[in-house]
Amino acid sequence: METEFKEQGFRDWSPGLSSRDQLTQAAFVGALGGFRSLVASVYHLKAHNSFVKKNWGEVERLRTVTASLQPKFWSYWDLAVWDMAWNAFGHYRGEAERYDDFESWRIENIVMPTYLQKGIDFAKRGLEWLPDDYRLLKVIADIYDQKMGDPEKAAQWYLRASQKPDAPSHVYRAYAHQLTLLEGMEEEAYRVNEDLYRNSGEITLTLLRDLERLEENMARRAASDMSHEELSAAALAEGAGYLELVSLGMHLLEVSKDLPAAIDIFEKVASHPLAPSFYRRKLAFIMLKDPKQTVRAYRMLKDVALKDPASLRREDNTEIARLEARLGIPEAKRIKP
Question: CA of 254: how far to CAs of 133, 166, 276, 283, 315, in Å?
Answer without folding.
Answer: 49, 47, 22, 14, 21
